[in-house]
Amino acid sequence: MVVRFYADNWLTASAGVGLLKALEHKGIEWEPFLKGNVIELPEDLFKEIGKIYADYLLSDFNQDTLKNLLEKERKKEFNLYNSIAYPKIGDFYSNSPIVNPSKTGRANAEFKKFYEKEKNIELLYSKAVDVVRNFIKEQFDELLGHERSQKVCFFCRERKAYIKDKKVKVFEATNFTPLAASPNTVENFFWNGKSNMYMCPECEIFMYFSAFAFQRTLRGTYMFVYTPDLRETFSLNDILAKEGSVGIISKTILEVAKTVQQRKSEWVLRNIYIVEIEKVGDAQANIHTLSLSPRLASALKDLIKDYPKYMEGLFDLFIEYVYSGRSLYEFLWSVMSGFFFKNRYKNLQGRKSLLVKKGTSFKDYLPYGLLYFVKFQEVLNMEDKDKVNKQVNWAYAEGKSLWEAYTLGMGEERAKKKVEVLSYRILDAIRRKDIDAFQQNIIRAYLEVEKEIPYVFVEALRDRSFNRVAYAFLIGLNSKGKQEEQETI
Q1: CB contact at 8 A, 457 and 435
Q2: How far is CA 125 from CA 54, 188, 212, in A?
Q3: Burial classification of residue 43, based on how many CB atoms lie within 10 Å of its CB (0-12 exposed, 13-18 middle, 19 or more buried)
Q4: Is the distance from CB of 353 to CB of 309 less than 8 angstroms?
Q5: Which InterPro entries match (predicted)?
Q6: Contact in structure between 114 and 125 (CB atoms under 8 Å)
Q7: SS (H, E, C) 150-178
Q8: Taking a C-beta distance cutoff of 8 angstroms, is the pair 15, 210 a contact?
């Protein structure tokens, strides 16, 4: 006999990932239990579910941790269980059986009584582990001991929901607080005022594993990556756990595009769903989601491998731009403003300022890799990829060639000043989308070095080509070529 759990949405998938992580932590091979998006636990293993849960809760708890907790809390009313559990699960299960103060207080009292008589850290640690294990087991056993109703569980569709306080148990805030549905408000989600999200004890226990799947970010939020394939979902979130919270979105998408088989990567990207939970109160949270359009998914699959390494610190901002539909030319303009007007920006703040700061970090030239953002935007614009590459590379080469002509004709110092003035004018023309001003500056520049105006600038007079030609030319005019990639900070 087996106990089945179904992972068919991001919430139940997070529970599935959390359970698989807990099994893996215990050294249990979980692959045989995974049948598509269904986890089938043998009954004898499910009987150990309390210990499995507790041991994962204790995964980073050791004698040194206990010693520090005891030292830190010496002058306060120390609660052992809360100190261990709350940082990991407190934000997810407010007032639930596994974090309810009235229940956890009893667990703490047991440890406190032992602590009053015993000071040996090894014995204290052993007692602390037993207290946590026993507490979790008691709560899970109590759940499983409830009387069953005749209502079928909404989540597994096979077991019977249990009766709590003379009512059939339904999904509510204690089962996943960020969804902010209490027993009194959850019924508002249903047209007839009656929730049909009945819950069996097994699925309630399953839901308590969700917290283990979410990764804490530097901003204090929690993130989880969901795809319709549970094994793939586990793999992606495992990568995030190992990488840490920095650039959590970027690491996910980079790894999808780089590691998933080519024939499958676009499917996964099209169905990737990133959930971010932002706590705003003791029992309230905002849930933000991000998914990828087919066009963006296709662009990421084809181009992500070429994303400039020195811009990886801005990858999540890059994703925000393309996901929200903001033009990457705005992204580029901010970077270039920082490069050309280093002395203008003081005390920069906010996320957009990160782009300007990146521009100020470029010393004497613009990196060749900035062309990546031009090409990426044009793919999103559904322009012909080969045509765009040819045109962008041509405009870049012409910019670099003009710089060399200036240097040859008037020396590097004078050429540098000439290029600086020309660059300011071109950047301003780009900002104002003034094709005529761009054209006049190009004509004057080429007349000055007695060179024929390249045909690529005729193409720039067409509105659809203007941005890509103008930006590529400006980058080339202020570039050292591909070799500078290794030198860029």
Answers
A1: no
A2: 14, 46, 23
A3: exposed
A4: no
A5: CRISPR-assoc_CXXC-CXXC_dom (IPR019121), CRISPR-assoc_prot_CXXC-CXXC (IPR010180)
A6: no
A7: EEECCCCCCCEEEEECCEECECCCCCCHH
A8: yes
pTM score, whole prediction = 0.67
Take residue 92 and report the two structure tokens written for it: 């997810």
Single-letter amino acid, residue 465:
S
Among candidates 438, 483, 443, 435, which has minimal Cα distance to 463? Answer: 435
Q: For each of the chain's 489 residues, which pLDDT tens digit applies? A: 899 999 999 999 999 999 999 999 999 999 999 999 999 999 999 999 999 999 999 999 999 999 888 887 665 667 889 889 999 999 899 889 998 887 888 888 888 889 888 889 999 999 999 999 999 999 999 999 999 999 999 999 999 999 999 999 999 888 888 875 445 544 544 444 456 889 999 999 999 999 999 988 767 788 888 888 899 899 888 877 776 543 445 545 555 544 443 434 554 555 777 788 887 776 677 887 777 677 777 787 778 778 898 898 888 788 778 877 889 999 999 999 999 988 887 776 776 789 999 999 998 899 999 999 999 999 888 888 888 899 999 999 999 999 999 999 889 899 999 999 999 999 999 999 898 999 899 999 999 888 888 887 877 667 678 999 999 999 999 997 655 544 443
Q: Which two tokens stand for residue 223?
A: 């993130």
Positive or negative CA dihedral for 187, 193, 196, 198? Answer: positive
> Tokens representing 476?
């080339």
> Measured between alpha carbons, how far is residue 374 from residues 389, 474, 475 in Å?
9, 12, 10
The alpha carbon torsion through 321, 324, 325, 329 (nearest 10 deg) reads -20
Number of DSSP helices (H) and strands (E) in the chain, helices first: 21, 10
- Beta strands 222-226 and 215-216 are antiparallel
Indicate the SS3 state at residue 73. Answer: coil
CA distance 201 to 195: 17
Q: Who's near 155: CB < 8 A, 6+ residues apart?
A: 6, 12, 171, 197, 199, 200, 203, 206, 207
Quick one: CA torsion of 182, 188, 191, 193, rounded to 10 degrees? 70
Contact partners, residue 10, CB within 8 Å, separation at least 6: 224, 226, 273, 275
| 285 Cα distance to chain centroid | 17
